[in-house]
């Protein structure tokens, strides 16, 4: 992964985290990495534990950020969530999978254009 893409992803995760905090979510964990993959954010929304996939795009050339959450990625996130819950061994009344899609285009003059954040609650 290029440094530019990594930085865009990190910035997107910070924007998503701030957005969720403003909506009243409590951030439980961030960037949970295992050999199988990574969970971007885990948040508490009332009694519900929310596994959040953050996708950030600076161009629509390859589709929107939300469209990039493929069937394979959804399956991987489900597997990672199960592994996380088993490792935590704590009772969780309910879980949910959300997607936060961020579009942050650069304008022609190199200045940052307006950022769009879409939150898909219960995305899958």
Number of alpha- plus pi-helical segments: 2
Q: CATH topology, anyone?
A: Trna Endonuclease, Chain: A, domain 1
Largest sheet: 5 strands, mixed
Number of strands: 5
Q: Classify the beta-strand content into a percent band.
A: 25-35%
- What number is the mean pLDDT? 91
SSE pattern: HEEEHEE
First-residue to last-residue Cα separation: 26 Å
Q: For the record, what CATH class applies?
A: Alpha Beta
Q: What's the overall geometry?
A: globular
Question: What structural class do the secondary elements suggest?
Answer: alpha+beta
Q: What does this molecule look like?
A:
GO terms for molecular function: nucleic acid binding. By secondary structure, this protein is an alpha+beta fold. The chain has one domain: Trna Endonuclease, Chain: A, domain 1, CATH 3.40.1350. The chain has two helices and five strands; from the N terminus they run H-E-E-E-H-E-E. Strands 1-2-3-4-5 form a five-stranded mixed β-sheet, sandwiched between helices. Strand 2 (37-45) and strand 3 form a beta hairpin. The longest helix is centred in the first third of the chain and has 20 residues, at 3-22. The protein is globular. 22% of the residues are buried. The model has no long low-confidence stretch (mean pLDDT 91).
